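Hi,

I'm pasting everything inline rather than attaching a file, because the server keeps stripping attachments. The sequence lines come first, and each chain or strand is labelled.
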Amino acid sequence: MNEQDKNPQKDQIDKLFGELEQLAQQQQMDLGSDLSTLKAKMVPVLKNRETTACSPWDKVCLARHVQRPGSLEYINMMCDDFMELHGDRCYGDDTALIGGIGTIDGRAITFIGNQKGSNLKENIARNHGMGHPEGYRKALRLVQQAEKFNRPVVSFIDTSGAYPGLASEERGIGEAIARNLKEFSVLKVPVLCFIIGEGGSGGALGIGVGDKLYMLENAVYSVISPEGFASILLRDSSKAEEAANTMKITAEDLKEFGIIHDIIPEPVGGAHKDPQLVASHIKKIITRDLDILCSKPADRLVRYRIKKIRGIGHFNGAQSWWDQLLNIFQLTRALK
Amino acid sequence: MRDSKKEHYASFDDVDTKKIVTCPSCSSSIHRKRLEDELYVCPECGYHFKLTPAERIAQIADQNTFEEFAADLTSRNPIALKGYEAKVSQNQRDSDLKDAVVVGTCTIDGQETVMGIMSFQFMGGSMGSVVGEKITQALLQGADTNTPVILFTASGGARMQEGIFSLMQMAKTASAAALLEATATPLFIVLTHPTTGGVTASFAMLGDVIIAEPRALIGFAGPRVIEGTIGQQLPKDFQTAEFQQKRGFVDAIVHRKELRRTLSFLLSAHAKRGR
Ligand SMILES: [Zn+2]
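And the predicted assembly:
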């Protein structure tokens, strides 16, 4: 990364002050002295900001921010062209989980992603990004279509979880997520996953199994919401902040655990302050990774993916399993 | 995760001090010996009591054929959560288990199988790193040796005390199921009361044949979560085995007395004779 990328905070603030000055001029307001006082006051705060990151709970709030850019916003900013594809060919179309085909620098990519709304009305229409089974089945249909035409997959994760409702249970949300986990793990095309906001439990994981997993700086990824954790383990649902701070759900935590590959920086105040900048970061990674992964033979790609997943766990008494896995790969190939 | 304390475990009570057991479903009093003869099914209402892995093995496997593997795996505290180690130790003492699943090999009517039995008794059967690893080992052992795998589920979901590692066990077990499928080795699932959350949303729903015990609670989100956050009226049979079968997610509901015979039939029907 170049120098500029290293300190997006400072650029952002400079830009902000520039805008303020411009605005003051336009409105013919004399902010001169006020602005310089503000600037002087902000310097130590900014310095502090650069060294001390915000708390996990702050990140939860940023990840849930109503103005935070969503899957479609990033897709539209990154792609030369994008066509949304609808429906699971079985029950219906879930607007909480979108998908389609787009091109980046001429390369066709299948995109899938959880989709919240950018205002209350849209949020209700999109069920706050909480997918039903048909959403997960649409995602599976699209990634298997991608596999058929040898197209890589990019997945954007941004949901508080799969929808916990009657309809969801009736149509088998458990089965839908389970099937995705199984099928994504052996998909013969590259799959890149980006947690752009909330990574909520099975609803996030249901489109989150891939070769690479990235998180935006202020995204979170957890097995249960801080509210849920608080009410069950701390026996007090109002202790969500305390829960968030103990659950190890930030990008930094998950990088340390080796669960994610890298953290994508955000401007000060969060991704919504400069969506274009964040989109350009994501686009760079997509291009870089796909250049490498698309040239790998499919069976090697799957092997690496499985090996990575197989190794996740934290317990006493671990033994080596690589030989067994190799033998299974041999058997699988012999069967084909 | 559900609170396991309110549930009755006939088989977990002290045999010597409690000769009479109360059915949690119909409240009738049953002699322990009678209950044992009935395979822990209430003779009055058919309620299937929860079983320990040892009891399940005794009911299903040919006598003295079960050989446990991965028996020594124990959990750590990946997110350094206060009190987690103590809770695990307490559960180990109370249950005489190392964690919420036992895996091994055995025969059923002489037919070899890899078998895994979850225990709701151990921290609500929650899936953390140890459960995920042991289920994965069972599935991969099946794939490696081309031996059918039978898994009995009982779980309140992911073990949230292990943070993101517990969520990842869903992907781990499901990818192991994918490899088992890729080697054309059958997976039989027996859903027992209750099976919910992350276990439902991973290997439990990936069987070639999925069996459920009568009236077992099977679902993803807990009924209280759904009622509480959504404010919806739920049907009376919501998330029962019967509900799931009606909606196409369970192949067969099998009474415990028929279970061994059913599994034996499935093993023989999937045997690779002169293919
Ligand atoms: Zn009864």
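The domain at 51-272 of chain B is CATH 3.90.226.10 (2-enoyl-CoA Hydratase; Chain A, domain 1).

If the labels don't parse on your end, tell me and I'll reformat.
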